[in-house]
Amino acid sequence: MNPAAQQLASAEFLAVDVETNGRPGEGCELTEVGTVLVGGGELHERWESLVRVEQPLSRGIERLTGITQAMVDEAPPAEPVLREVAERLEGRVLVAHNASFDRRVLAQAFKRFGLDWADPPVLCTVALARRFAPLARQRKLALLADALGIEVDETHRALPDAVTCARIFCALFGRLCSGAATVAEAASLLGPRRRPKAKRAAKRRPPAERPDLSQLPDDPGVYIFRDERGRALYVGKSVALRSRARSHFCAPAEWTERAEIVDYRATNSELGALVLENRLIKRWRPPGNIRLKRTDGYVYLRCRLDIPYPVLEVDPEPASGRAVNIGPLRGRRAAGELADQLTSLFRLRHCGRTLRTREHPSIYGQMGRCVSPCLGDLDPNAYRRLLDEALSLFDGDGDGSQRLLDWVEGQMQAAAAARHYERAAVLERRRERLAALLERLGGILRATTGGAKLALARHPAKERFDLFWIGAGRVVEWGPLEAAGDLEGPVRAAASAPAGGPVDPEELDEIRIVSTWIAEHDPPTLELSPAPPAEQVRAWLAGAAST
Fold it and tell me: What is the Rg, in whole angstroms, of the alpha carbon atoms belonging to the chain?
């Protein structure tokens, strides 16, 4: 019977995982195969075999999989192993994680040795999770298994990975059966989604018909393509305006057909171009700009204060409204660990924004790492005092990292003075871990909307500068250094900008652009809290511009 025509509930499945030598194309060879028979939602017969290879293994593959050259030298040749795989696949459905890879490797191996590849129906557990477990954002095998509550003891070996794949399949099998009756319907349900029809390709305009780009300089700034009536079609930025504007006609978009005029606004720095581009896009809403692109890898530790018991969370975007955003931080995993450390140290909530009432404390509450507002008897003001104590470490000027370490040091000394030596020892280990974590995160940890500073952004090639007055995370004023006249007014305006207030959603992009650029490039900066006299600012500018 054709496996695709079988009823899904009664079909037999073979979970398969293959390990290879890691070489691309025709050089790819099997090093190990593992299979698990699945039927009735349960795991049955398991089988695995190493495979002899013709080309030597690289050290990287040996380290990744634990399969050594000596192991594959003593393994059986590929042909009998493949015949065994074909026999086990007969009449069954192939299940694999990222199934297109396993299927392609197997089909290529069968073809190399002149064996018939039966091309069985294929179900992919990645597609299965995407369809029926959408909240499991991480879909790598081990991470997906963990999200589904499946324990994983070993990875990057064929049989353990096949077992994990089979368990994921069984965990989601009931949901699959509710959406498909036969194997063919299941394969169609999990198959690639149809892409929308491609839009009509824009024509490449001959150079003689393009807008005149000869007047654009090779300096940082913003260029604006306009139609014949002067309306903005597209706003772009670059550190070399002329060459970047030309590139749009190499891969034309729909708006390039209507572009008749191009003008520009030069800046002295990349940061100036970024800020100006963001402001012009928000002012004009050109049809060619769908949304600002993100190319950095920074995240923010943020706390939205619009609920009675706020939580710390990590997100690529700062939060708008009543919120505190700390960062930007390099590395989501390290930032997540910092959030967990702060949550435990100050006994904040470990659960998400939705607070479910419990009859008994959670495991964190039982360990004393949470004040358990979920019991319904905690004053929100008492919880807020703990939260404010944690967030105040990163508010204002200076290094919040050092203030956090000093706070842990103080708690450790207090515990030792009270003869709570076990707690003091725990805090000492926590401080060592935090010191290493904060060093990995790098930079000065502070709230993005706290403090005021002056930043000097340099031209990429010339001795020219843009000067930025930044207060509460926002650009209060900016312009060329040589045009800077009165300094006292902008300094006072930046220093008096209200910190910690609600952030308008329209301001978020600029706050993120400025904070991430400063974190990435580490330009010369001068703290403006309290506001220094103009003479001190001029002396700092002279020194910073000369280095």
Answer: 30
